[in-house]
Structures are given as C-alpha cells and as structure tokens.
Amino acid sequence: MSTFDFLLQGLMIAAQPMNLLYALIGVTLGTAVGVLPGIGPALTVALLLPVTYKLDPAGSLIMFAGIYYGGMYGGSTTSILLNTPGESASIVTALEGNKMARAGRGGPALATAAIGSFVAGLIATLGLAFIAPFIVKLALVFGPREYFALMVLAFVTVSSAFGDSTLRGLTSLFIGFALAIIGIDQLTGQARMSFGVPDLLDGIEVTTLAVAMFAIGESLYIAAQGNRAPDKIEAVKGSVWMTGQDWARSWKAWLRGTLIGFPIGAMPAGGAEIGTFLSYAAEKRLTKYPEEFGKGAIEGVAGPEAANNASAAGTLVPLLTLGLPTTATAAIMLAGFQQYGLQPGPLLFVTNPQLVWGLIASLLIANFMLLVLNLPLVGLWVKLLTIPKPWLYAGILLFATLGTIGANPSVFELGMLLAFGVLGYVMRIFGYPIAPVVVGLILGPLAEQQLRRALAISQGDVTVLFTSPISAVLLLIAAAALILPLILRARGRGQTLSQLAANED
Q1: Lowest mean pLDDT segment, chosen from 49-53, 300-304, 459-463
Q2: Nearest Cα to 48, choosing from 37, 60, 57, 59?
Q3: How many whole angstroms separate alpha carbon 255 and alpha carbon 119?
Q4: Number of Cβ atoms within 10 Å of the Cβ of 247
Q5: How far apart are CA 325 and CA 125, in angstroms?
Q6: At residue 78, does pLDDT exceed 60?
Q7: CA 443 to CA 371: how far, in whole Å?
Q8: Are 127 and 264 in contact (CB under 8 A)?
Q9: Which residues contact 92 (CB under 8 A, 6 or more apart)?
C-alpha cells in the first residue's frame, strides 16, 4: 500500500466520533494547562499523562497528540501576553510577541501564532507521513549492535542538548540508568537492586518518574522561590484579527519557519529552540521593516512560532520510526507508548500500522481543532493567566497526586512520587537537566538488552560493535558529539584567558 492509502486509513480511524472527542479533549486540556505561566509542553504532557491511562491505546495516543500540540501552542500565549516562556523554544516568540502585546497588538500576535502553528503543523505532519516509511525501511536492516550504537548516539546527543553542561547532562542520564537497573533482569530473570521490596520488582514506573520530576519538582522549585512581584497581565486591545498587511508580512514567514523547523526537529541532536532562533535570524535579515525588530515585528512571531510547531512534528520522526526521543516532551510521549506495552520503532509500523497512521492523521485534525479553538478563546486564556501562583501550583500538586493514584493505587507509589519530586527539585537548584533522567530510565534497559544480545551472538567479543559499518559510524559520531564540544569549550576558555592576560599587560 502507498503512503496515501495508509494516511487515508489513518484519517478514517482518527475521524471516528470517539477519537474526534478524544482529540478535542486533548487539545483543550493541553492548551488550558499549557497556557498557564511557567508550564511548557513537557510539563503539560507529563501532568496529563495519567489522564489517558484507562483509555484504549488508539484513543489514548490520539488524546496524547492533542495534549502535545495544545501544550506547544499554549506556551506561545504565555510568552506573548506575560513575557513568561514556558520553555526555551518560546523565548524567541516572547521577544517580539510581548512587545506587540504591550503596544495593544496582542490579538494579531496571538492570531499569527495560531495560524502559523496550523500551517506549519499541517505541512510538517504531511512531511512526517511521507518521510517515516523510508526511515522505517532503513531501520529494519538494523541488528542488535546497530541498535545499541544508535542508542549510544541518542544518549550522547540528549545529554549534550539539554542544559548548559555536557557533564551535567551525562550525570542526569546515569541517574536514569541507575533507576533502570531496579527490577527483574530481562534476560536472566534475577531480581536486581530491589532490596527485598516487592514493589520494586516491577521496576520504576515511568509515568510516576515523569510526573514527579516535571510537575512535582517544578512546583517545589516555584514554591521555594517565595513571594515575587506579581505578574503584570497585559490586556489584549482591539481586534484579534490580523490586517491585510499583517497577512502579507506573515505568510512567507510561516513557510520559511516550517522549512527551517521540521528538519532540525527531526535531527537526533535537534530541538525546537535551534529552529526558532534560526527562523528569527532569517526573518530579521529578510524583512522590509528592520526598524520594527525589537519593538514588535509580526514576522518575529510568525516565523519562530511556525518553526516551533514544525519541529514538534519533526520530533515525532525519530520517535515513531526509531523509538528515540530527542526532546523532553518526546521522552514523556515515549512513556505514554510504553504504558500500553508499545515500543515505537520500525516494527510498530509493521505490527500495528492502524495505530501509527491513526496517530499521524490525528495530528492533522488536532491542528485544525487548535486553530478553531484558540482564535475565539483569547479572552478566556487571558483570564486563566490571572490565577494566583499558590492556587496554580497547589492544583498541579493535587492533580499529579490524583493522577498517580488513578494509574497505580499504592502508598509506595505515592512515596516514590514524592521522593522523585524532591530529586527533581534538587536537580533544578543545581542546574541539572531533567529530561535525560527520563530518557535513561526508558532507553537504558533497551540499550542493555541490545548490547547483551550482540555480545551473546559474538560470544563476548566486544570488537563486534565496530565490525559493522553502520554501528562503527554511529559510535564515531557519538564520540565526536561528546568530544568536540569539550574541545571547542576548552579552546574558547583558553582564548579568553589569553585575552585577559593581554589586557593586564
């Protein structure tokens, strides 16, 4: 069957009444939670992960995709109205969007963000549909050593991409590895690191860890900061609709942002923030109104927001085809798959094509729903922004606790939720990234399993990892990704010291 046939089948599945309802609930919940100050897509998805626990896999993942896209859009609303980016990818949107809001043009800023997200999401989802089958065909030739090398590359790039320090990223990753060891050994059946506690024999629940690290840890971190100056709410003045000039200045920025964001989001070391910065730089260079940049240029909202949403669809390319998360949100989505015993990767396209193509098709529907939902409800989102922080984060703590109880009713599970929440709080204080911990817990056992299979086939010969051209190239790329930043950083530090010494002389 061709890609068109698969996509048409997926649309038929996604267009079923219950799945449409799940998608609508997902985009509404995702936008409503994502629009709140300081809550980005990763925290939104982690917080709402237990909500989907009791649903069937198809409906759950369709709702999950709606939550993902809704959370992505909600971050732009917060950035524009409050100058409070929920994540790093929304920082660029805040640069021009908040200036527009302060000038009374918050309506057009929100409108170009919504329409740009729709255009980018539509094009990027079609790109995902047509690119994914080719990557799946390539991945099907992979053996245990190739998969292990691919996961090593993912570990290195994830550790380098999150946070300012590669060492701290690797430290977070190894915390995830340590947690992944707990439970029953998949190959021998022996208990490991369970300390005689029966509840630990099944291992650490990914959902519990994700909700604790992102939601509980963030709430404790905000609460520990104490009282700050109250956020100033910027009213949206005038019409929410864009003028003819706004349209003329936005549509090219939407297309350019899509072309920049999608391939970068699909890269193993990608990330939406890279695409948004590149898009902003491109719009600043190509604009006919350079004097408006820094004062509220609409292109500075349209391009980065399109790049942000396109990279979200791009992120799903390695996640669905190879099972590799390249962002914090993708790591939480991987947890969503695994709570149903599903492992994203090339075999999922073969064993459960209806589920995968229904999910891809639901992204198209979710994009349309977001456009229809968000343009008329700007006033409501502004009112949500006025919720006091104590109420907001108390609600998050309550919701996270109830969600964990619903997914796994156990006192021990609640204790782990609190313990991991405190761990997430401590890691935030010392500047350690959170996402590598979740990635280590999810992918660590898979990498271990592939490595042990490769060594069993070669009767313990470690050199087998380098005899395959694909695995050798992947391991070399991983080594380069780990070593090159350290060399460049050391060189930059050396140049800085030499300049200081020259200045003293």
Answers
A1: 49-53
A2: 60
A3: 8
A4: 16
A5: 17
A6: yes
A7: 35
A8: no
A9: 273, 276, 277, 279, 280, 300, 304
Instruction: List residues bridging with 192 in a β-sheet.
Output: 183
Name, in order, each residue with C-beta under 8 angstroms of 352's C-beta and a sequence gap of 6 or more. Answer: 342
SS3 category, 310: helix
**Structure tokens given for 38:** 């300081």
Three-state secondary structure call for residue 172: helix
**Amino acid making up residue 34:** G
* Token digits of residue 454: 């490769």
Query: In angstroms, rounded to a whole number, what is the distance separating the alpha carbons of residues 302 and 120?
Result: 10
Residue 19 near residue 58 (C-beta atoms within 8 A)? yes
Return the structure tokens found at 94: 């805040």
Q: Which one, of 423, 424, 435, lies nearest residue 162 by Cα?
A: 435
pLDDT per residue as tens digits for the range 268-316? 545 566 677 778 878 887 878 777 777 778 888 888 888 888 888 888 8
pTM of the model: 0.66
What's the farthest any 2 CA atoms get from each other in the chain?
76
pLDDT tens column, 110-136 = 888 888 888 888 888 888 888 877 776
Q: Are 375 and 240 in contact (CB under 8 A)?
A: yes
Helix (DSSP H) and strand (DSSP E) numbers for the chain:
22, 2
Question: What are the DSSP E strand ranges found in 109-219?
Answer: 183-184, 191-192
What type of residue is 215? A
From residue 344, alpha-carbon distances to 201, 278, 318 in Å are 24, 30, 9
Angle, CA of 329, 331 and 333, to the nearest 5°: 70
SS (H, E, C) 340-361: CCCCCCHHHHHHCHHHHHHHHH
Distance CA 424, CA 26 (A): 26
